[in-house]
Design goal:
Low-confidence stretches: 1-14, 195-208
Number of helices: 2
Radius of gyration: 18 Å
Shape: globular
Order of helices and strands: HEHEEEEEEEEEEEEEEEEEEEEEE
Mean pLDDT: 81
Number of strands: 23
Largest sheet: 8 strands, parallel
């Protein structure tokens, strides 16, 4: 009973003391991003957040490439007229995913973020280092590969709930894996402007909780493109084989589903959705 009360109190306090930040295409970047003084850029608001905070994005198109490092909720102000994040105009062509969600250094549990009622489009992917030889290191001189992945969204060693989002027209022939979505555990070095890249083999982010949970509820996938896994590529490799990536696509819509006459072969082929190593769908 005591443990239940403490858990309830922790959740209640998190909700009670959370801050809501606002973003509008007509706003001006500032240090508060309030409802009456919204920021212009989504990243500006996100950089102000701590775990449990909320970022509300008003209707419009935002030409940004977003990095989420905190356990926040990113929501459209109007679900019937969702905000659009267009990743087609990156400052750095090697970082051109619409959104990257990544657990930062110094944490021993994964962040859990929520993205809801947002349209992601135009992203071409971010260059990561894949632990290709599976030795627990990131070293391109020793067989590891640089790959451009995750046109729409990268989830790196993090938990994510995607609700009622539209992920469409991401990736192209230069996107090697995961046109719409690329999810990875600790088997890939994802660039992070803060503090440095790549993570080391003894970094705190390698000792996170055992299972990463990634849920896509009522998410629409359409017209995404990559060399492998046009829609989704999940790389579950982790030097600690007790860690897994769990994926759930409940009530989501794919534009690539195979519908057989007797329904026995229904599904989505690995040409579109593919999992490697410790990935479970």
């Amino acid at each position: 009973m005591k443990k239940i009360f403490i858990l309830f109190l922790t959740i209640f306090q998190s909700f009670l003391f959370s801050t809501t930040f606002y973003v509008s295409t007509t706003g001006t970047d500032n240090s508060t991003c309030t409802q009456f003084n919204p920021c212009e850029h989504i990243q500006t608001a996100i950089d102000l957040t701590v775990d449990g905070d909320i970022v509300i994005v008003l209707v419009g198109t935002y030409y940004e490439n977003i990095f989420i490092r905190t356990a926040i909720s990113l929501l459209s102000d109007d679900p019937l007229n969702p905000a659009i994040i267009d990743g087609s105009q990156p400052d750095d062509i090697d970082f051109s995913s619409c959104i990257v969600v990544k657990t930062p250094r110094g944490r021993n549990t994964r962040i859990s973020a929520t993205i809801e009622d947002i349209t992601l489009t135009g992203g071409k992917g971010t260059v990561i280092i894949e632990d290709t030889n599976k030795d627990g290191l990131f070293d391109t001189s020793n067989g590891d590969l640089n790959k451009k992945v995750g046109g729409g969204l990268i989830i790196a060693n993090a938990n994510l709930t995607s609700k009622k989002n539209k992920i469409k027209n991401n990736g192209d022939s230069s996107t090697q894996e995961g046109g719409a979505i690329y999810a990875i555990g600790t088997g890939g070095g994802v660039p992070d402007p803060e503090p440095q890249f790549p993570p080391g083999p003894d970094d705190d982010e390698r000792i996170n909780d055992e299972r990463s949970s990634i849920v896509f509820e009522e998410t629409i996938f359409s017209d995404n493109n990559a060399q492998i896994g046009h829609t989704v590529l999940v790389n579950g490799w982790n030097p600690d084989t007790t860690q897994f990536l769990n994926m759930d696509f409940g009530n989501s819509q794919f534009d690539v589903v195979f519908d057989s006459e007797n329904n026995e072969l229904d599904g989505v082929s690995e040409y579109w959705v593919r999992g490697k190593d410790n990935a479970a769908f």
